[in-house]
């Protein structure tokens, strides 16, 4: 099975498992989030061990042994991105499955199981991007955290006359840009590699700009997995946004 197909299938099936856990009615709130994290993580790590036994692995929900640093190919997963939103039975949470090759996000799948019918977006940065979504006719739309919008994002929105769209998980926010529902996702409040690797792979594969907020590239499979900031946006906004926060 090709890597892209595997990433899509794992993200989709993990999302379905999470919906079943939630529908069981056995858990709620934080307990639901914890149960979802554990069940989805076990499914993903066992499936990757079966299908890609020679690759490295980094998961938010598994102990990091650093053995992954010996691999050029490393799967980086977040079984439930937006555990709080999942536990609250909201729709703005995601499942992230990504493959980093030589430190770069190469392949990614982001499932949004909470949306009607379930949605999955995926991409391979080595393939030509799909046709671009036409530019938004109106004020630029910035997706920001529901509870902790980044100061830089608020400042940029003020300078460019932007509209703020509060949303839950990083994956949900990034995919809003990919889907054409938003124009800019600027984050500076602290994240880890599993929060952004799959969204960055998908966004880059769709022709969007992806970088740190200082303009440097997003690098993965580092010894320190802390990767606190990112900018995902339509290409026409990248230069102006980076200049405003530079």
Automatic annotation (TrEMBL):
GO MF, one term, reads: metal ion binding
Task: Identify the keywords attached in UniProt to this record, alphabetized.
Answer: Magnesium, Metal-binding
Give the cofactors, semicolon-separated. Mg(2+)
Q: Where does Mg(2+) bind?
A: 60, 78, 81, 195
Q: Name one GO biological process term.
A: 3'-phosphoadenosine 5'-phosphosulfate metabolic process
| PANTHER family found in the cross-reference section | 3'(2'),5'-BISPHOSPHATE NUCLEOTIDASE 1
Instruction: Name it.
Output: 3'(2'),5'-bisphosphate nucleotidase CysQ
Organism name: Croceibacterium xixiisoli
